[in-house]
Amino acid sequence: MRTKQIEELDRRLIWHPFTQMKDYMGEVPLVVERGKGSYLVDIYGKSYLDGVSSLWVNLHGHRKKEIDGAIRKQLDRVAHSTLLGISNVPAVELAKELVQIAPAGLKKVFYSDNGSTAVEIAVKIAFQFWKQKGNGGSKHTFLSFINAYHGDTIGSVSLGGIDLFHETYGALLFRVYRAPYPYCYRCPLERTAPACGMECLNQVEEILSTRHEEIAALVIEPMIQGAAGMITSPKGYVKEIRELTKRYNVLLIADEVATGFGRTGRMFACDHESISPDLLCLAKGITGGYLPLAATLTTEEIFNAFLGDYRERKTFFHGHSYTGNPLACAAAVANLRVMKEEKVLEKLEEKIRFLSTALQKYRRFEHVGDIRQLGMMVGIELVLNKATKEEYPFEDKVGTRVIREARERGLIIRPLGNVIVLMPPLSMSQDELSEMLSITYDSIKAVTSSGLR
Ligand code: PMP
To answer: What number of helices (H) and strands (E) belong to the chain?
Structure first.
């Protein structure tokens, strides 16, 4: 197909996710044809740095030899067989690796194929667990956070707290309790960390102490709320949450779909505060960003509550057609091997330091209100007025305008509202990181000094 024909068909046939199609159909689409390392190449041969790891999934760059090879090798054996009642070799190998690297106590692996289902499964397991422990289903709801994002299925949307994405579906959702996440830049209590002593934890405790008999689990994006705009929590917050959930006999579900596999500088975000959740949700980076795969890990105690005579109906009746897909699991095994053999986490420390030093320069911008970073996850919050923290109006699309500028300059990024997100592959070199930062700098400058307001 010729380039113009591809573009025309794309606009005519494909409904793109999280995309206002009225705008999209009026623009020339960027159609990727291939990739190598940190770059993606479009159908015209133009290269772009992949500054968001193809939506937070890619870890070692595109066309990583070891992962390509593992998939090809598995393809010569079998592409897919079911995990319902039977097994496959890569799924077993991967489970062994996951249990080894996961926070202590997580011993069982339930596969699915995306982050939303990993969370959906954790929710169903937590609910059924309490039921089968004999509490008669009174623990029927959850505690999640304002501005949380856990995926796009109805269960994960019920936990979500981003009005723009979730409000529309209100009538379809189950009700949950919601606590404020520590968004220190815009602290609702108007306090400053660490002097505040994390006063906001009182609100979590208030809900848990009065409602724990109804709450099956607390669900958190540990250390950093991703889709909310890369909102980092203060040191010690996640540890306190773990303590509170134990105290009030509520399970802890850690959604590490975005943070897992080194993205924050540690294998898992939970590792920063040495905590183990009762359920851990993984997806995105699990295959190094190659194929759709997810896993929900849990403890022996939870697993055991599902054992019983068949007639007792304690079985977990959940499973997707592609659960534990062998090609995806083979990619994931190869991904973990690369992490280990190339000492990816060790090498990351220097890059993370480099990023945080280089980002200081952005603070000088009149319209950069806050810069947040955890490992290789960065959020640059643009504001209309730095002194008052007044936000740019939604309809100004300031984030979208910045990423458009960046695209012209050869960088693919995506905003979250007025927050510019940088999430490069862990393998991005220092020179490439510099290139990404300098394009982002120029793009922010072009938009925020363009007389927008
Ligand atoms: N949880 C978190 C924390 C996420 O960031 C995301 C996706 N951005 C999801 C769940 C949903 O994952 P998926 O898009 O694979 O369904």
So the answer is: 15, 18
